């Protein structure tokens, strides 16, 4: 992997640190170990329905908090991804055949957990002609049928190797929020997200809005990978040009020593500055903290997002 260094005069704490060494984890990034009755109940329901969660597969630091409240992000289409992004802990390889009963099991779990808002994501499935678009749509419809009052947020792959019209399959199933993460600044794509294309992902988000303006669009990036502030603000501008409603920014954490190194830990003050800048650029909703992840507090954030649009439209 190519060495990604920022000159030490910009980050003095790196001047005497070997390039492959982790900077010391600061106090603001630490979380409590998972456990408790709520956590165990959520875990049991996931196991009973034979469901995979990105919380576990990606080693999310917020899993303990979210699961204790009954919130788990469902990861459909298996545990094996066809991409090899260097930031991600999900296994790469040849996926299994799609499970046609999975949408129903997801719907059952959502009902049993009593979720008001659910987040559904997936691995990349470049092996499928439609990238899994129809499977997403079937899952959305199954949840709608079983829990009509539950709002649905999806976090999709980029459908890079598919025909353009497969996106319509997902959009026409009418999720409440369509999320697709850009993950990082375009200059780091060759080493961080080598199987993806930055401007394709931007266009994907823009096409969702063009197809159905009522759907909220959402995207996020990680910081601490080697980007600079100018790169982050440029991504903000690009997202707004694509009419993205909701931006998330969180600290990258290295899952294992084999993954992309943490360049540095971004301070809470810097996250606050990013949030202020993003609101100034016109996002309806921004979540920018060290522990922010795509689905962290997603239900509460959705209510705030909906209220922000109503206010913008002058209905409040």
UniProtKB/TrEMBL annotation:
Q: Which UniProt keywords apply?
A: 4Fe-4S, Cytoplasm, Iron, Iron-sulfur, Metal-binding, S-adenosyl-L-methionine, Transferase
Q: Which cofactor does it need?
A: [4Fe-4S] cluster
Location(s) in or outside the cell: Cytoplasm
Q: Which GO BP terms sit in this record?
A: protein lipoylation
Q: Which residues bind [4Fe-4S] cluster 2?
A: 81, 85, 88
* Disordered, as annotated region: 1-38
**What Pfam families does its record include?**
LIAS_N, Radical_SAM
Enzyme class, spelled out: transferase
**Coiled coil in keyword set:** no
Which reactions fall under this protein's catalytic activity?
[[Fe-S] cluster scaffold protein carrying a second [4Fe-4S](2+) cluster] + N(6)-octanoyl-L-lysyl-[protein] + 2 oxidized [2Fe-2S]-[ferredoxin] + 2 S-adenosyl-L-methionine + 4 H(+) = [[Fe-S] cluster scaffold protein] + N(6)-[(R)-dihydrolipoyl]-L-lysyl-[protein] + 4 Fe(3+) + 2 hydrogen sulfide + 2 5'-deoxyadenosine + 2 L-methionine + 2 reduced [2Fe-2S]-[ferredoxin]
Q: Where is the composition biased (Basic and acidic residues)?
A: 1-19
Entries under InterPro entries matching the protein: Aldolase_TIM, Elp3/MiaA/NifB-like_rSAM, LIAS_N, Lipoyl_synth, rSAM, rSAM_sf
Q: Which residues bind [4Fe-4S] cluster 1?
A: 55, 60, 66, 295
The molecular function terms in GO held by this entry are: 4 iron, 4 sulfur cluster binding; lipoate synthase activity; metal ion binding
Q: What is its main location?
A: cytoplasm
- PROSITE patterns associated with the record: RADICAL_SAM (PS51918)
**Record SUPFAM superfamilies:** Radical SAM enzymes (SSF102114)
Family (UniProt): Belongs to the radical SAM superfamily. Lipoyl synthase family.
- What is the name of this protein? Lipoyl synthase
Tell me the organism: Pelagimonas phthalicica
């Amino acid at each position: 992997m190519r060495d990604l260094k920022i000159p030490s005069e910009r980050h003095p704490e790196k001047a005497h640190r070997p390039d492959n060494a982790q900077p010391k984890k600061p106090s603001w990034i630490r979380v409590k170990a998972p456990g408790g009755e709520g956590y165990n109940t959520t875990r049991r329901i996931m196991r009973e329905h034979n469901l995979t969660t990105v919380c576990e597969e990606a080693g999310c630091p917020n899993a303990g908090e979210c699961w204790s409240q009954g919130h788990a992000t469902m990861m459909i289409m298996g545990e094996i991804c066809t991409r090899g992004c260097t930031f991600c802990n999900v296994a790469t390889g040849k996926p299994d055949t799609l499970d046609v009963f999975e949408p129903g099991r997801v719907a059952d779990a959502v009902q049993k957990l009593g979720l008001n808002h659910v987040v559904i994501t997936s691995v990349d499935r470049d092996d499928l002609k439609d990238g899994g678009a129809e499977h997403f749509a079937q899952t959305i419809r199954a949840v709608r049928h079983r829990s009509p009052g539950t709002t649905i947020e999806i976090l999709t792959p980029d459908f890079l190797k598919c025909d353009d019209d497969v996106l319509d399959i997902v959009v026409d199933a009418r999720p409440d929020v369509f999320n697709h993460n850009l993950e990082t600044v375009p200059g780091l794509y060759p080493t961080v997200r080598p199987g993806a294309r930055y401007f394709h992902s931007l266009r994907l988000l823009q096409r969702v809005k063009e197809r159905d303006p009522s759907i909220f669009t959402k995207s996020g990036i990680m910081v601490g990978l080697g980007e600079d502030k100018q790169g982050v603000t440029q991504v903000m501008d690009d997202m707004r040009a694509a009419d993205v409603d909701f931006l998330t920014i969180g600290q990258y954490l290295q899952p294992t020593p084999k993954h992309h190194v943490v360049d540095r830990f971004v301070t809470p003050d810097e996250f606050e500055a990013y949030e202020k800048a993003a609101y100034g650029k016109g996002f309806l909703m921004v979540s920018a903290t060290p522990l922010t992840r795509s689905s962290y507090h997603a239900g509460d954030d959705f209510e705030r997002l909906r209220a922000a649009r109503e206010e913008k439209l002058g209905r409040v």
